Amino acid sequence: QVQLVESGGGSVQAGGSLALSCGASGNIRSSDCMGWFRQAPGKAREGVAALCGISGSTFYTDSVKGRFTASQDNAGNTLVLQMNSLKSEDTGMYYCAGLWYGGRWHDPNRWKFWGQGTQVTVSS
Fold first, then answer.
1. Cα(76)–Cα(29) distance, rounded to whole angstroms?
2. φ and ψ at 115, to 5 degrees?
3. pLDDT attached to residue 73
4. Is 119 in contact with 20 (CB distance < 8 Å)?
C-alpha cells in the first residue's frame, strides 16, 4: 500500500507562482513513477506532469510546458510541482498519483494510488 499526501495549494493572482508537494510513504520505490493530475469543476481529471525516477524521464501536458516543473528528492519520497506564470485555467484540485501501470501517462486509469488533493485557485 502507498499513501500520498499533497500540500502547498492556495490562492494566487494570475502570473504568480505556487509549489505543490506530495509526500509518499509505504511500498514505493525511488524508481517508481509519480504524477500530478488536476480536475476543474465539471471537467475530467487530466494529467499535468509525471516523473519517473529510474529513467529521469519527465512528461508534461502541453498547456503547462515551460511554466511547470516536476522534481523529486533523492529518496524518491517527495514529488514537487513548481508552478510559475499561473493562469486562471490552471485552477482546480491537484492530485498526486503513484504507481503508473504504463501506457498513456496522462490517463488517470493508468495509475493505482491517489492522494486526497490540494486546491489551487488562480484569479485573474
1. 7
2. -85, 180
3. 80
4. no
